[in-house]
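Record type: monomer structure entry
Structure origin: computed from sequence
Chain ID: A
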Amino acid sequence: MCIWRKILSQSNTLLEGYENSFWTCSVSKLGYSGTAIISQIKPLSVRYGLGISDHDSEGHLVTAEFDTFYLLSAYVPNSGDGLRRLLYRITEWDQSLSNYMKELEKSKPVILTGDLNCAHEEIDIHDPTGNKRSAGFTNEERHSFGTNFISRGFVDTFRKQHPDVVGYTYWGYLHGGRKTNKGWRLDYFLVSESIADKVYDSYILPDVTSSDHCPIGLILTP
């Protein structure tokens, strides 16, 4: 099975053959966040958000249940300019999402994909020294990512498959980051440990340039 996280354009061609689509977006901040799952296979069930009103008004999560796993498409809240949402991110959102995933995991494995807004390790960012207090690479965010996801048994599939590869999924527009490859790895596939050995490949497609992010892919063996 091949799973893609695509950055959607206005073109409908990305939807051909994918008859099952599920979308959510922010109702509190128009034009902000939003997530989707588009599938050739009809899910057994679909739910939106975490079931926590403080988190769910921004459209950060869609969950689709399939026969052998749950697939979660997420946009993790950015800590923002001046790190104004850092405490919300690390003390509320990350823990709530992690707890939700562990609850789902009681019935079947979990796959989480999306812009998780954290470059977890120094290899995941072009300038680790200069970005120590940048949203997405603070010590607090990196510790929270490790504590709430990696230490709780969710495997970073790209890093497991390619432990020493420098691969970025986001390049800021402001300073022409694409041209100089000054990027960040913010987009992930995390999977439950129980299916980590079924990951045939987890990869990045940096040459797709329709966004400041690029697509990533995951291939699972049967």
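Annotation 1: The longest strand covers residues 70-75.
Annotation 2: Residues 2-220 form a domain with the Deoxyribonuclease I; Chain A fold (CATH 3.60.10.10).
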